[in-house]
Amino acid sequence: MGRWVRRASAGLAVATLVAACGGGGQTTTDDGAAPAGGEDGDAAAPAEDVEGMQEAEALVGEYPREETLFTSGTQWGPPSSWNPIPESGEATGVRGALYEPLFIFDPHTVELEPWLAESGEWTSEDVYELTLRDGLTWQDGESLTVDDVLFTVGMGQETETVGTANLWNWLESAEATGEQTIEFTFSDPRYQEWDNFLYGTMIVPEHIVGEWAPEEYVANANEDPIGSGAFRYSSHGADRMVWERNDDWWGIEALGLEMPMRYIVDIVNPSNEVALGLLLQNGLDLSNNFLPGITQLVERGQVETYFDEPPYMLSANTAMLVANTTQEPTDDAEFRRALAFSIDVDRIVNGAYGNIVQAAHPSGLLPVFSDYYDEQVAQEHGHSYDPEQAQQILADAGYEDSDGDGFVETPGGDAIELSLIVPAGWTDWMEAARVIAESAQASGINVVAEFPDAGALDDARTTGDFDLVINNWTTLSNTPWSYYNYLFYQPITEQMFSGNFGRYENDEAWDLVQELSRTETGTPEFQETLSQLQELSLTEMPMIPLWYNGLWAQYNPVQWTNWPTDGGDNDIYPSTWGGFWEFGTVEMLAQLEPAN
């Protein structure tokens, strides 16, 4: 049994966050404009000659239909990594189906549920005792033990590029005190942040990852992966990720969960048009894409959704406009505030989404945290669509259109042209980007929408090689702390994997984020700290809250039934997005039933 102790020189690292992937996507008309996705959207199946449709149908035909669950909506590029350590960029299902956390989080009860762990409790204000389940195994037959947990935590001692490095800022030691128990002693207990670690970090096998050099912890693609989960790696291709049921999974006995499907085939998204066609033709069981015409699809009985009326979907995350704060003019808070006032969010909500999403509160906090909104701060410092206000802020800050081309220049006289990037194929976001660009241009800010492939965008966002990017990793979690940790995270490293992609530096804000993690929810001190963070986020505007994304989930009940519904026996969040498996996706899959 091992022991890990904090070193005085331990570095900081990327925050441990739950990263929600999956934006959306919406079919486009022939001229490239997106139709409304609400009550009037056309839900007709796409024609056979739609690009990628025949290939997708052929893919479906390669697997036994009655034993296969087909999913889509997460993977927007060929699978290329099976490494759960970076917390982003991995193939669909790596985090949850293959690798597993100690606990999972139930958003309905706002409580942690034991998974690899049998239990966990604070035995004093600075000591947490974890008990691991007995009989856990890796898929190669090796036992999963406390040493694997200690190794996963201890990787943060070896390199600051992994999420667990952040723990060692406030974790003093981690020591096995028995065959199944670990005692974590904290120099600075952060109760909410610790809960995020417990359900947001995948445990990895020491006997495999321990053979890697520390610099490989993030860089290694981990081909031929060995996890502990309910599904094992089967195969992959440019158009798919295939998981096969692990019939030796420890959870069959310990959790009483059996997977009814032999295979999960996640189809790489060629387009949402193809996803819609497959869904309506029984080639897709769960679509986590944004699809137009949801009202008609539900009313006709062609698909099922969590709610049977608008908004049809659970709320998932906040779509944010991220500005690169390391370059001119987006390094200027006044310019960012002007940009916020220039954006016609209602046009996005009504047009691109047909009112199945809602505009974000100025704070950006999800509606589940509405009790924490400081409306006085929002009224004084918040933003809404107001082109005249945007132009006034620009003028007051020294931005003028000196050459008469309709766009302002920097106070130093340099031309401004900002590229706003969203992934190609995420067509609701593509339409939103067009709206943002057009409304910003109308206020004198030259923004151009561009659509790189998802892989190129991931690289640009991670390395800071962008002007503006839409991101929605402000996902549902157990606490508002995770939102502000995403917003203000420090230190700034060469690669930012989980938050603060705009590389905004504010020591005061970061200190408040850390104080929030130390404070118990529901106390006056908790609200006071939250109010200060809301004010800083609105006056500095490192990211601009836009709208609340739905948890896009449409089910085809022809092959599999008992999908999650409001008030149903199965009410678990129905998503294969990254960061949502930790909310119980494996339990959701176990509750599905063959239709025949």
TrEMBL record:
Signal peptide positions are 1-20
Q: What's an example GO BP annotation here?
A: peptide transport
The domain of life is Bacteria
Pfam families from the xrefs?
SBP_bac_5
- InterPro entries (alphabetical): SBP_5 (IPR039424), SBP_5_dom (IPR000914)
Q: Which residues form the Solute-binding protein family domain?
A: 111-490
The alphabetical list of record keywords is: Signal
- Gene Ontology molecular function, alphabetical: peptide transmembrane transporter activity
Q: Spell out the PANTHER family in the cross-references.
A: ABC-TYPE DIPEPTIDE_OLIGOPEPTIDE TRANSPORT SYSTEM, PERIPLASMIC COMPONENT (PTHR30290:SF82), PERIPLASMIC BINDING COMPONENT OF ABC TRANSPORTER (PTHR30290)
Q: Under which name does UniProt file this protein?
A: ABC transporter substrate-binding protein
